[in-house]
Amino acid sequence: MTRSSHLLDALLPLVADLAHELPAELRYQRLLAAMCRLLPCDAAALLRLDGGVLVPLSVQGLSADTLGRRFEVEAHPRLKALLGAPSAMRFPTDCDLPDPYDGLVEGAGDKLEVHDCMGCALQVGEGVWGVLTLDALHAERFSDDDLRLLDAFADLAAATVVAAARLDQLTMSVESERSRAEAYRLAAQPQRAVLAGQSPAYRQMASEIALVAPSELTVLITGETGVGKELVARQLHASSPRADKVLVSVNCAALPETLVESELFGHVRGAFSGAVGDRRGKFEMADGGTLFLDEIGELPLAVQAKLLRALQDGQLQRVGSDREHRVDVRLIAATNRDLAAEVRAGRFRADLYHRLSVFPLNVPPLRERGRDVLVLAGAFIEENRRRMGLRGLRLSAGAQAALLAHAWPGNVRELEYLIARAALKAKARQASAPAHAPRHARAAIVTVEATDLDLEAHAAALPGVTAAPVQDAPRLPPTGTPRDLRTEVDAFQKRLVEQALEQHQGNTAAAARMLGLDRANLVRLAERLGVALRSRPPQARGGGRNAGTA
């Protein structure tokens, strides 16, 4: 079979996919898989250009946390060269330009030694859409024919990207198109934290955000502490018709009870001691835009009644004034409390609860998001790499296993702070390595090990929380010790499956959600690995009315 026929066979499924509605990430995965079938590589990536940053959309053969990274073009000369090249290019094996994937290629260790690397820019219209990159762990793996084939594939891949984008545009209104552009603009700005993930739980939340954001409905965001409720509120605002207006955030829990009403509705001069002038409240400041009330369950009952009136007819009064003001505000509220239980206990007004929960939106805890923890860890690793001025910062296999096994009672916020501490420890450990230490201990790529995370000590400080022992996490064999790869992968997967089942008391559905798998796939994987599944207790016979009779 000729290479032309191979190319045709690889691309026919991609063309067929255009007739179906597919998630963008799945479409990109299939595009990358087709390229990897055509060309002999150990790692490949599809990256989209967003301003001066390349964003990974799909990867193969690279660490899972790569998807959370952002590659600044000016900081990565190889990627910059690909963007500026008129056609596909291959780097000489003796090229001294740093490789952006140092420490990220699976099986390559902390540093990519002499290897084969090529890639190309994807041209869409008059501009560059992004790049395709391929890496082989052995020198001289690629040939001139491979380079020409990559050029041909790139043209068709760019056409596929364009066609997919046009199909998406047909389903979007002008209003949602503008909201999406605004969301991209905001996403390009530096932020302290990120909304990212690929798990079913995250996708469900993302689809609900996309559904309700363009509307004027009041949204009640619920979820545990640290899951990212404020980030969800910002995304709702950025994707709404009010995106070009102000977003005003208020932490209700931080307001003194005597000043809550003044903070929300404002006051006039002389309304109370210390009111030396008129002052607008948060509602007036948010007029035309969005008001985000975080921890709304902390509001006193007296203020809840006035808040209800403001929500119902847009009328409010400043403290000490009889004059009414009308405001146009979209309200988003958030709480980590069970407001329905608070209503039953008499601590929250039932009418306000129903007015707030027009569209309830739950943010799932991190422990239910499976491998999203690695995607988020990758984003935080990259943030700390830039902050510390490091050329590279990566998670070891043991650290990744420990992150996947942890219960995350503090959710994304806990992960963010934990990665920051671990990165600092890893940097200090490498800096103190003696001159005669092994090369990998003094490498330019700083590796965060499971011991840097110190999850056992971290969990011990929290009541009722346990962490899987770090020493039990699967470890890679020492360099130079040949081991069977399939055996090592199976051992790694078996440990993760056992930990997930143990954490969820044998509940296969909950364990599957944690690992980012379908339940049926988890059952098949457990059977293949020899993991015992807890059988359901037999249902009692003769129940109902006669049960329990003598």
What layout of secondary structure does this protein have?
Layout: H1 3-17, H2 24-38, E1 43-50, E2 53-60, E3 71-72, H3 77-84, E4 89-91, E5 116-124, E6 127-136, H4 144-170, H5 174-188, H6 200-212, E7 219-222, H7 229-238, E8 247-251, H8 260-265, H9 282-285, E9 290-294, H10 301-313, E10 315-317, E11 324-326, E12 330-335, H11 339-344, H12 350-356, E13 359-362, H13 372-388, E14 392-395, H14 397-405, H15 411-431, E15 445-448, H16 450-453, H17 455-460, H18 485-503, H19 508-515, H20 519-529
Parallel strand pairs: 7-12, 7-13, 8-9, 9-12, 14-15
Antiparallel strand pairs: 1-2, 1-6, 2-3, 4-5, 5-6, 10-11
Q: What is this structure, in a nutshell?
A:
With 550 residues, the chain is α/β, with parallel strands linked by helices. It contains 20 helices and 15 strands.
What does this protein look like?
This protein starts with a helix and ends in a 21-residue tail after the last helix. Helix content is 43%, strand content 14%. With 550 residues, it is an alpha/beta fold. The protein has 20 helices and 15 strands. It folds into four domains: 3-170, GAF domain (Beta-Lactamase); 191-364, P-loop containing nucleotide triphosphate hydrolases (Rossmann fold, 3-Layer(aba) Sandwich); 365-476, Orthogonal Bundle (Helicase, Ruva Protein, domain 3); 478-535, Orthogonal Bundle (Arc Repressor Mutant, subunit A). α19 (508-515) crosses α20. The strands form four sheets. The protein has a six-stranded antiparallel beta sheet, sandwiched between helices. The chain has a five-stranded parallel beta sheet with strand order 8-9-12-7-13. The protein has a two-stranded antiparallel ribbon with strand order 10-11.
